[in-house]
TrEMBL record:
Species assigned in the record: Phytophthora fragariae
The protein, known as: Uncharacterized protein
Protein origin, superkingdom: Eukaryota
Length: 104
């Protein structure tokens, strides 16, 4: 039961919808990794889909080195770039919802 509680509590908060950048950061930086500890298949799937969708808005691609001292900062910068491009796309297409799974 204790292990179960730890797994569910590390699946992300349901208090309020997260920005795509926050989801990006959590997917790449959070330890233990979300996909290893989260029992909610829906949460894992949503986070994975949002993260992969954001990759479409990185025209030059990206490369991350998990051993780098600046890994967290790199993830944050790349996430900001993807989110900025995503929001620009939304603005151009009249989309107003920008948080949580509504970005899909």
């Amino acid at each position: 039961p204790e292990q179960n509680a730890a797994k569910t509590s590390s699946c992300g908060s349901k208090a309020s919808p997260k920005t795509p950048q926050a989801i990006w950061f959590e997917w790449y930086v959070k330890t233990p990794k979300l996909w290893e500890v989260c029992e909610s298949r829906q949460t894992k799937s949503t986070y994975k889909q949002i993260t992969n969708y954001m990759k479409l808005f990185l025209p030059n691609g990206f490369a991350l080195d998990p051993t780098s001292e600046t890994y967290s900062d790199d993830v944050m910068c790349i996430g900001q770039e993807a989110e900025t491009n995503l929001y620009k796309f939304f603005e151009d297409h009249g989309v107003t919802r920008k948080h949580g799974s509504s970005v899909l």
